[in-house]
Design goal:
Blueprint (H helix, E strand, L loop, with lengths): L5 H7 L8 H14 L3 H17 L4 H4 L9 H13 L3 H7 L2 H8 L7 E2 L2 E2 L7 H9 L10 H9 L6 H20 L12 H9 L7 H21 L12 H4 L9 H14 L3
Antiparallel strand pairs: 1-2
GO molecular function, one term: iron-sulfur cluster binding
Pfam family, one: AFOR_C
EC number: 1.2.7.5
Amino acid sequence: MICYDYEPIYALGSMLGGSDADDFLKLMDQIDVWGIDVMSTGVILAWATEAQEKGIISDTETMGIKLDWGNYAAYIDAVRLIIEQPNEFYKALARGVLHAASMYGGEDYALAFGGNEMPRYHTGPGAHIGALIGARHSHLDNAGYSVDQNILSEKQISPEELVETLLAEERWRQTLSSLVICFFARGIYQPDTICKSLHSADFNLTPVDLYRIGEEIHREKYRFKIREGFSLENLRLPGRIFETQSPVGKLDEEFIRRAIRICQEKVAL
């Protein structure tokens, strides 16, 4: 049985210009067998396909593989070489799309945020800002896509408001994840419900306590990141996100950069 959901379909389907379900499943199966990340693999293969298309890499780097959109046989061969790393090109791909682009070019379409390859969301500025400022650089850190869908689809808000919304959500999620609550169930486990559940086990906490704990955990995560050399100032924005229309319109680069600066002020330790 091949396990798949929306994320692999995006990463290995639409991201690679594929439409053949059987061939998609063959690639998905091989990636499962090899035990590598499907989202990163899809983004890396998409970058390599466009890089070869634009001539910044050749058959020499790919060792004779012609990467064409939707050519799943070529993608299966390429993924095997990413695993084996027989030359410098495949070694670079194995280290991620940002590393490969830093060596060969094509940074504008190297779709990564904070070092992580892009998830399936191009819903608006909230999704990308959320991935950039999230402690793990994950779309699940603060659900920026949800802000796009539920707020920005209805009205414009300032970068300050957007950052406040994202940080509040991410801080609350620290509490949820610490309690081993699935984020898909976050709508059920509201603060009052959690407090009642904890009370049954003799933990007498209030909703204020829960929010405080979440904020403290988030602060500690950022303290660790900064100690290890991370800086929001060094985050890069892939140019492709400004070329492609989102459901809330074209993205404004200055709006996103302003939001990052605001976040930097708010998480300053």
